[in-house]
Write a structure and sequence with these properties.
There is one protein chain. This protein has about 475 residues and is of the alpha+beta class. The chain folds into three domains: about 25-65 and about 145-310 and about 355-465, Outer membrane efflux proteins (OEP) (Up-down Bundle); about 70-80 and about 125-140 and about 315-350; about 85-125, no CATH class. Helices cover about 65% and strands about 15% of the residues. The chain has eleven helices and eight strands. The strands form three sheets. A four-stranded antiparallel sheet has the order 2-5-7-8. Helix 2 crosses helix 5 (about 145-210) and helix 3 (about 45-65) runs antiparallel to helix 5. The longest helix has about 70 residues, at about 145-210. It is rod-shaped, with a radius of gyration of 45 Å.
Length: about 475
């Protein structure tokens, strides 16, 4: 009984888990949900976000240079041979002085002792065999031009990396919009194909009945059968292309291929035509790339300032406290004197001549600033051209869609009238085949125009920096 209950519980958990997994793996996304998903899962965005974290740690490193620096050291030395220091012989002159003064005679020659011309040196050992010391050093930077400019630039460097994330997201967002809307347009294409298949199936059914009554030929039935087969094959091709499009969208937003993605938003001609902004004031400032370049320019200016301030001296306050002990035996952990050393000081250092290294760096930074300014001006020209081109393409695309939509409606009308004539026996199979061909051509042209209009709208919104 217990085994049966346990088995039922395990089975219930397994079913619930499988259902949860199945539910989790299915996504029905709007365009904005795709964009939000990409912000969390696209590799480029994730790496750009990591660059922000890296910059935060770099800023912490810059800040640390302005904090007090406390260093400690402990040392122990054993002198197997105590170092020898050679010093002038200061003993012999005193001895000879006494001997000479007392007129002491040389026992061998009987003459008075006289001082030699040179006394030489004495090799002397100073120190103990065992030496131990401990030191604490506190240093506070008071002024360093490069460090303080680095502190001023911290916020800008962080904004620079954050803007890089936005630029990356914007680039990915443009592609998401294009693929998503193209897939949304493909729904209309499939709907048109389904309508054509339904239309031909109905016509084929009617022609078969007419054939049974002797008012149509087998050739008419065969032609319609071929047309129906071709339409179904065309639909399969479109479905395969759509599936490939979904795979591309999943890859772009960072979604695993095994998960299911469906689109919640639809796109119509009215959607494409609406929502356009004609106000192009502040067009440059709306672009993430321009904002990114402006921050790069500001960082270039900080760089010039940093190298200019490197001509000024670096000033730091220093405090040292240390203990030192010397022993002839290893007795540091026993009683004995430890001698204290402590002092406070102020250090100032300045480079008097560096071979024009600082001047070279300043000039390099100025050239970098000029390059950034050139890039900004070039970007403005690019945006102007991009906006003009996008506006022309969009207006042309809208005009084409309207024209092709009218053609498609007219082709449907012609087909319906031709079909009625054929069913009434006053029209020929050739006429209805021609009408069906014209209808398919009109539908294909309409879908192509919709695709072009979608891309044109996205490019226009991108050019104005107003892509939602």
């Amino acid at each position: 009984m217990m085994k049966s209950i346990l088995l039922m519980v395990l089975l219930s958990i397994t079913i619930a888990y499988s259902y949860a997994q199945e539910k989790t793996d299915k996504h029905n996304f709007t365009i904005q949900q795709c964009i939000e998903y990409a912000k969390k899962n696209n590799v480029q965005v994730k790496n750009a976000l990591l660059d922000i974290k890296i910059q935060e740690q770099v800023n912490r490193g810059v800040t640390s240079a302005a904090y007090p620096q406390l260093n400690g050291s402990v040392g122990y030395t054993y002198y197997n041979d105590i170092p020898v220091q050679s010093i002038p012989d200061f003993i012999s002159p005193a001895v000879y002085g006494v001997l000479t003064h007392e007129h002491v005679q040389n026992g061998q020659t009987g003459n008075g002792i006289t001082a030699p011309g040179s006394y030489g040196i004495i090799p002397a050992q100073f120190g103990s065999k065992y030496v131990a010391n401990g030191t604490l050093q506190l240093q506070q930077l008071l002024f360093d031009g490069q460090v303080f400019v680095g502190l001023q630039a911290r916020n800008t460097t962080l904004k620079f990396q954050q803007k890089a994330v936005e630029v990356t997201e914007e680039s990915i967002k443009v592609n998401i919009y294009k693929i998503y809307y193209q897939l949304a347009v493909s729904k209309s294409q499939i709907e048109l194909l389904d309508a054509n298949i339904e239309r031909i199936e109905k016509l084929l059914k009617d022609v078969k009945e007419i054939y049974k009554n002797g008012f149509a030929e087998q050739l008419d039935v065969d032609k319609l059968t071929v047309q129906l087969s071709n339409l179904k094959t065309e639909k399969e091709k479109v479905l395969n292309i759509v599936e490939i499009g979904y795979l591309g969208l999943k890859t772009l937003i960072g979604m695993p291929v095994k998960e299911t993605l469906t689109l919640k938003d639809n796109i119509t001609y009215d959607d494409i035509k609406s929502g356009l902004l004609t106000d192009t004031a502040s067009i440059y400032k709306n672009r993430k790339e321009y904002q990114y370049l402006e921050l790069a320019k500001k960082l270039n200016e900080y760089n010039i300032k940093r190298y200019k301030l490197s001509y000024f001296p670096t000033i730091a306050a220093v405090g040292v406290y240390g203990k030192n002990a010397q022993r002839n035996k290893l007795t540091f952990f026993e009683k004995g004197d430890w001698y204290t050393t402590s002092y406070f000081g102020l250090n100032a250092s300045i480079s008097l001549f560096d071979g024009f290294s600082k001047d070279s760096k300043i000039k390099q930074s100025k050239y970098e600033l000029q390059k950034t300014n050139n890039t900004i001006e070039s970007f403005k020209l690019s945006v102007n051209n991009e906006l003009s081109s996008a506006t022309l393409k969009f207006n042309s695309a809208i005009s084409t869609v309207e024209s092709q939509k009218r053609n498609m409606v007219l082709a449907e009308k012609v087909y319906d009238q031709t079909k009625k004539k054929f069913e009434a026996g006053t029209g020929s199979n050739t006429e209805i085949n021609a009408a069906e061909t014209d209808l398919k051509s009109a539908q294909t042209n309409y879908i192509t125009a919709l695709y072009d209009a979608v891309i044109a709208k996205v490019d226009f919104l991108k050019a104005t920096g107003k892509l939602p």
